[in-house]
Amino acid sequence: MRTEQExxxxxxxSDFADKSLLIVDDDNPLRDRLARAMEKKGFQVTQAxxxxxxxxxxxxxxxxxxxxxxxxxxxxxxxxxEEIQKYKKNSRVVILTGYGNIPTAVAAIKAGAIDYxxxxxxxxxxxxxxxxxPKSKATPPKDPMSADRVKWEHINRVFELCNRNVSETARxxxxxxxxxxxxxxxxSPK
Length: 190
Fold this sequence. Notes:
CATH superfamily of the largest domain: Response regulator
Strand order of the largest sheet: 2-1-3-6-7
Number of domains: 2
Largest sheet: 5 strands, parallel
Oligomer: single chain
CATH topology of the largest domain: Rossmann fold
CATH architecture of the largest domain: 3-Layer(aba) Sandwich
Strand content: 15-25%
């Protein structure tokens, strides 16, 4: 539940004439789930799973809102953000990433994004970021991930990028293979 200050800082989707939302993410289940949730909230959603398809969508119909994954199979989501800014300057773009760090957050904001949200993401958080008043400060998440959960998410993301190869993942993370196996065998922390 949002606080009174959060509610006053948020605009409503009904306040906008153009409700078009482009979601660009190569994680199909996440993209589909997010698209359904955002449609229920009143957005008119289109989807793309790559930089190339995202740019094509932008050229055909520039969206008023966009949710773009930072790392896509065929390149950086920042290319899509830059393309959106070329065609529709006042578009509100939120970057999603499994690789949160300060340099990429700065690059996203410079490219034209209004917010930068780490995965896993909640539709309410995305809606809040998209509809936040440009003059208001971002509100911290009400239930942020614990440090243990962030570490677990990062390890599992690297594990997936290494095609689930434990030895290669252990080398990249500079940890012992058996330690990594113990971490991977446990459930995700809260």
